[in-house]
Amino acid sequence: MNLSKRFTLLTLLAASTMGAMADGKPYTSQVWSPDLGNGQYKNPVINADYSDPDVVRVGDDYYMTASSFCDIPGLPILHSKDLVNWTLIGHAIAEMPSYAQAAPDPSHGNHVWAPAIRYHNGEFYIYYGDPDLGIFMTKTKDPAGPWEPLVHVLPAKGIIDTCPFWDEDGKAYIAHGYAGSRAGVKSILGMIEMTPDGKSTIGQDRVIYDGHIENETIEGAKMYKVGDWYYIFSPAGGVATGWQEVLRSKSPWGPYEVRNVMDQGNTEINGPHQGAWVDTPDGQEHWFLHFQDKGPYGRVVHLQPMAWREDGWPVIGVDPDGDGRGEPVMKYRKPNVGKTYPAANPVESDEFDSTTLGLQWQWKGNPNALWHFCEANTGTLRLFSQKTTDSPRLYDASNLLLQKFPAENFTATAKVQFFPRKRNGKTETGERAGIAVMGYNYAALALDSRADGIYLTEVMSTSANKGNPEKEVKAVKIDGDKELYLRVTVKNVGPKQPKEKDDYKGEAVFSYSFDGKKFTDFGEPLKLTSGHWIGSKVGLFCVRNWDSNDSGWLDVDWFRITK
User: From the CB of residue 549, how many other CB atoms can be counted at a distance below 10 Å?
Assistant: First the structure.
């Protein structure tokens, strides 16, 4: 069986067990699907926070990975046949080993930065730079996993955005950027030779390009070769406001010429840059996937047409004035990959009918087996209360089960029942569980066990990253033995046609219901913010403020994303 057929079979099997298929059809989102069904697509092709995307084509299959920072499982793996319709099929990091952790969980904004995925000698490789620890690599023959344990290729501080490259002469290299916060200097690109097996480096790291004058904050290097030319695709100008550069040279060590091949132009897509060049299976079309920073909604993924000029430089997007600098499109014809594929999107909702969590869920660090139980017989997720830190703030907890925002406007609803621990017939106090939206600003709608019963509460913190405390906004005593529907509605409250990152203003409003039909708003709206290099996330939690030899729990019947 060839790789493509084997992968398709594995994907279908995984999808059927993970809820990715409904009635034999791929999962399609109620809140965002880019395939317009008429041969065209709209951007973003993934309206979720898959930051720093990189893509490789193998045969007629495309595979994407993205930054995951401290969230586990890490290094998401997505699959597509047409570059428009994407499915999440797994992760390359199931658990972060101790040698790849520079700080305890949750280590907001650390660990896995800007990966690159490549296919070499029958295996898939992913390299990423940890700004504190250096370069790491994992590989596999099956992109759906499992992936091999992380290899620490180069211990270093400040090296990020790493991309491997194997040359025809047998030599191999890693192109990369530098994190100014650790290296003490930024706006430069580096290169280091590596062993052909990709497991270690050779010699000294060298600076190959200085962008301080024309391309400040250049980073995110992705290396390719066309004919005798080595090309490095690199973003510059900053995450939210930058542009896409391409460098080229006849030697991997330079000197490099440089050209701006795409910027925002007159469009509403701020900072279009950092991503991957791929072609169609017949080699006739070229495409570029990149991110756009939408503040609290994260860095979403766009697809742009790309063309090669006669002078050997690429142009990304459309170039109406022919100056060689493209600008992004919001709507365009789909890539001609030889076939038409059905609409498909990463799964968001979860009925919890499996013995494992859906692939959309991540913890804020390495999970513990005692945090949850997937009871497939009853189709229930049970979250056991845990005290993971001495902090009373949810921001400092690792046992938060969260997923990316799927769009700018959506509703997340969970059907739950709270079972706080009882001892000698009395309910223990100090356990709480519910639904949360997490960023630098965060809030939660929670069920809280107190001395005189169960209370429905809203808690909130603003600028939690600065150490600000969590406050209780509202508390109402309820009948705690009943099933309850907890809901959060997220909406963009900025201008209808935003032109930059700061225009993406959002709020989250919590509500509850006892019958799943009539919902009552509760507490105050949360002003949405980003997190540390990520967008806000939504999900579930169950925590307590005491140590014990047992716990209470939250049963979750389902979690659904709707309009």
Answer: 4
Catalytic pick among 71, 161, 219, 245? 219
Q: How many CA within 13 A on the CB side of residue 499? A: 3
User: Among this protein's residues, is 52 annotated catalytic?
Assistant: yes
CA distances from 194 to 129, 151, 198, 230 (A): 15, 13, 6, 17
Residue 425's pLDDT is 80
- The secondary structure element, H or E, covering residue 132 is none
Residue whose entry in the numeric block shows the structure tokens 């050209």:
259
pLDDT band for 480, please (50, 70, 90 cuts).
confident
**Tokens representing 444?**
């939660």
Provide the greatest CA pair distance for the chain.
81
pLDDT at 8 over 50: no
How many other β-carbons are positioned within 10 Å of the β-carbon of residue 378?
Answer: 11
Kindly give, in sequence order, each residue whose CB lies less than 8 Å from that of residue 277, ignoring residues fewer than 6 positions away: 222, 224, 233, 286, 287, 288, 306, 314
Amino acid at position 13, single letter: L
Angle (nearest 5°) at CA 461 between 456 and 465: 145
**Strands, DSSP E only, in 27-145?**
40-42, 54-58, 61-65, 74-80, 86-93, 113-120, 123-130, 134-140
Helix (H) / strand (E) element for 290: namely strand 286-293
Burial 224-246 (b: 16+ CB within 10 A, else e): beeeeebbbbbbbbebbebbbbb
Distance CA 476, CA 232 (A): 58
From the candidates 35, 49, 52, 105, give the one annotated as an active-site residue: 52
Q: How many CB atoms lie within 10 A of CB 214?
A: 13
One-letter amino acid identity for 95?
A: E
441: which 2 tokens? 């600003």
What's the length of the chain? 563
Closest CA to 300 of 287, 291, 313, 309: 291
Cβ-based neighbours of 180, under 8 Å, separated by 6 or more: 158, 186, 187
How much is the pTM?
Answer: 0.95
- Whether 95 is a known active-site residue: answer no
